[in-house]
Amino acid sequence: MANSALLVMDVQQAIVDLAGNGSGYLARLRRAIDGARAAGIPVIYVVIALRTDRPEVSSRNKAVSAAARAGLFTEDDPGTEIHPEVGPRRGDIVVTKRRTSAFSGSDLDLVLRSRDIDSLVLTGISTSGVVLSTWCQAADLDFALTVLTDACLDLDPEMHRFLTEKLLPRQAHVTTVQEWLAG
């Protein structure tokens, strides 16, 4: 069996405040986290955080430059902290990224490879942002992928539906938290 890790991506206070906890999202994510821990699967948190003086921000990157202009996601901003309902525990890894993909501007690939992890379970906010970008890059890096549809959230429900039903299944096993825990 593959060596797996559960990625909990961009579930930060400001992002949860923006996206909301619609239909029990954090509770479902918490079940996935607890299930991973019970199965001995490492839980790796991925957060976006920009340096206070923002040297990594380019005006050519619409999303990152918009966040920077709004004063979001600086390393010292309380909104950048992982939401306390699903926060890390001792032994969990927190990776900081500087772009949309969990791999961009982070040491995630180094962490995964040093632990011989070859299979990723993707969760996070948003499906059309961090989940999609990480899915693309992880597939190109030859990771086996699982996406937990109800542990992903997007501001656009139709986009979430399209991605989880049409696009993501092309390179990932797409399932629910309950089905994943039962498997």
Automatic annotation (TrEMBL):
Signal peptide: none annotated. Coiled coil: none annotated. The keyword Amino-acid biosynthesis does not apply. Residues 4-179 form the Isochorismatase-like domain. The keyword Hydrolase applies. CDD domains: cysteine_hydrolases (cd00431). Keywords: Hydrolase. GO terms for molecular function: hydrolase activity. It comes from the Bacteria. This is Cysteine hydrolase. The lineage of its organism: Bacteria, Bacillati, Actinomycetota, Actinomycetes, Kitasatosporales.
